[in-house]
Amino acid sequence: MSLNEVVPEKTNVLSTERLFRDVPQGLQNYMAIVYLIIWYISSGATLFSNKYILSSFHGDVFSLGMNQLLLSILSSFIQMQIMNKISTQIHKNSPNIKNIFQDMLYIGAFRCITVILGLLALKYIVVSFVATIKASSPLFTVIISRIITGEKTGYWTNFSMIPITIGLALCSSFESSFNILGFLCALGTIFFECLQNVYSKLLISGERYRYTAVELQFWASLVASVFQLPILCYNVDILSAISSTSSILFLLYIFNGVAYHIQSFAAYAVMAYISPITHSVANTVKRALLIWLSVLIFKNQVTFLSGLGTLTVIFGVILYNEARDIEKKIGISNNSVNDTSPIVTRRGV
């Protein structure tokens, strides 16, 4: 069966393979909503534990980043083994190692850079300011998606990015912290995260082979750890760092790594249902929520501008959804933008 052939609708068995691949695209699917909620919760756990480890325990950025990747590799491997036990067809037609590393070379590099720059940004600037800087990700994604995948967007969709970005900037306008290194690291994180998302979308809906979310998580983390290992060895005395790690910090590392794995896996799972631009907007809404949570956790004073910013973000998201519906009706969007057509199909046999 070819990659473009969709599984017949009439079947007596709801296999695990169909559950993970043959699903309708778009956030109207209940599994997409479930993954979205998991993604939001685990993202908050990862972000705040990152900040807590770096600030309260003076944790090392490179050690924390490698910890996240290693636990992602371990968790993904266990998850794949469980899925193999459930259904032997899920990984039946996996490509060879050479093709896998060719596919994952860029994504692994992007993930390595994203992890390091994201942690460096948190080390130098506050959580809400990091989230605000990352609010411009939809703009990066629109440009990158257009260049790499040819995904077209109409004027109203492009316009909807403006209130989303401005609204998030207003959400944390009361934050006075600024550090040029942290600011540049946050900008770098946006760029490479968007590149990673676009390339990941290509692999999840690829023509030669369609990776599942857990496969993408495993191989991307493995390749990223290969890139990060020499950086870790150069900057950290590994034996000394291990011996000086307290039991509390060790448990925090475990919690942080597992939360990071769940966050990344859920993000890939959501990506199988929606386009990169919709994924970026969902990510932006998530950051708006994280800004408000950081305000509550760190007891920052809430200003009028922060409330106005939240309303502006909501307006931008509504405008975006309406613009996408209009584009579908008048035919501006191409097939890659259509959020209602199935994108996940059975692999070729």
From TrEMBL:
Gene Ontology cellular-component terms listed: membrane
UniProt KW Transmembrane helix keyword: yes
Topological relation to the membrane, as annotated: Multi-pass membrane protein
Pfam families in the cross-refs: TPT
Record bears the keyword Iron: no
Membrane spanning stretches: 30-49, 61-83, 104-133, 178-198, 218-236, 248-270, 290-320
Main subcellular localisation: membrane
Keywords attached to this entry: Membrane, Transmembrane, Transmembrane helix
Domain Sugar phosphate transporter per the UniProt entry, residue ranges: 33-321
Protein's cellular compartments: Membrane
Protein name, as recorded: Sugar phosphate transporter domain-containing protein
Source organism of this protein record: Rotaria sordida
